[in-house]
Known about the structure:
With 354 residues, the chain is of the alpha+beta class. It folds into three domains: 19-147, 2-Layer Sandwich (Nucleotidyltransferase, domain 5), CATH 3.30.420; 160-225, no CATH class; 231-328, no CATH class. It has helices at residues 19-33, 62-71, 87-100, 110-124, 137-147, 232-237, 255-268, 270-281, 288-301, 306-318, 342-353; strands spanning 39-42, 49-52, 58-60, 74-77, 160-165, 171-174, 177-180, 189-194, 198-205, 208-216, 224-225. The model has no long low-confidence stretch (mean pLDDT 89).
Amino acid sequence: MDMPHSDACFIKAYPGETTEAFCDGHIAAFEFFGGASLSILYDNTRIAVARILGDGRRKRTRVFSELVSHYLFEDRFGRPGKGNDKGNVEGMVGYGRRNFMAPLPRFASFDDLNAHLEEQCRKRMGDKLRGHGGETIGERFERDRAALQSLPAVAYDACDKQSARVSSLSLVRYRGNDYSVPTSYGHRQVLVRGYVHEVVIACLCSGRAEIIARHPRSWDKEDFIFDPLHYLALIEQKTNALDQAAPLEGWQLPDAFATLRRLLEARMGKAGKREFVQVLRLMETFPPDDVEAGIRSAIARGVIGFDAVKHLVLCRIERRPPRLDMTLYPYLPKAHVAATSPGDYLSLLSGGES
C-alpha cells in the first residue's frame, strides 16, 4: 500500500494471493500507518470485484463489502488493463523488489521476512525524494496521518469462511487439503475459517459455534494435517493401532512418555497400553508440559498408573502437595493394620454368651 502525497509505503509478503491475504494486508497496513485511508484505488481483482456492471460501476464481493463497511473507506477502481491509473503502486512494487528483495533474502518464516520488510519501510521514512522541497518522506507522512480515519476498536476478522462436512475419517477438506477434527464430530457440518497461517474449524454445539480444531495452514496440495489428540479416543478402544495409526506417525513426545509406556506394559500387559493412551488423553485437557511433569513425578515416586499421573498433574496445576506421599502430612495419625488372630473372635463369642 502506497500513500500518494508522502510516498510512504507498506509492503508485506504472503504465500498466495487469496481473500484472507488481501484482507490481512489491509489490516496490517492500517496498523502500520496508524489509521485507515479515506479512499483507496484498486485494480479490478476478483477478490474485490465480483462483476463490472454495464455503467462501469463495480459489484463488490461479499468479503470486500465487509472490509469496506468495517473501515468506512471509499473504494475506487482503475480502468481494466490500464496499469498507469495506479502508477504509484506499480512503481512501488518495482522499488520494493529492487531495494528490499535484492539480493534475494532468505528467512526461516514469513513472519521473519515481513519483519524485515516492515523495518525497510520504516527506514525509508527518512529518505528525501526529488521535488519534495527537501522534506523527508516521514515529514510529509505526518500530513497524511492527520487525514487518516481512526481505526475501529476491533480489527476485521481477515479470513475465508467455508462450510464443510466432516468425513468418516474425521477429516475436513479445505482448499485441497485435509485437516483433522476429533472423532466424535464425524459426519457433522462445520464452519472452516481459513486465515493466512491458520485454519480454525468450528461446529454448532448447544446452539453456539464451538471451536473444535486449530491447525497451521498448509499451502501444499493434497496434504494431510493431523492432530494426534483428535484420534486418541478411538485408539483407546483399539489399542493395537497405537503404533500403526497414520495420525500418530511422527508424533514426537518427550522421553518420559516412552519410559512410562514401557513400565505400564511390563506390569500390566495389554491393559498397560490402554492406560498409556489414557495418559496421552490428559493432553486433551491439560498443557503438555504439565502432563510431562506429572509423568516424571509419577516415575520418580514409583506410582505407575493413569490415576497417579492425573492426580499429580492436578496437584501441579492447583499448586497443592500430592497426597501420594504421606510424609507431607505429619499431623495425621498413621494407620497400622495387624493380622487378626482366632483368639480375637473367641473373645467376641465369649462376650456374647455373658
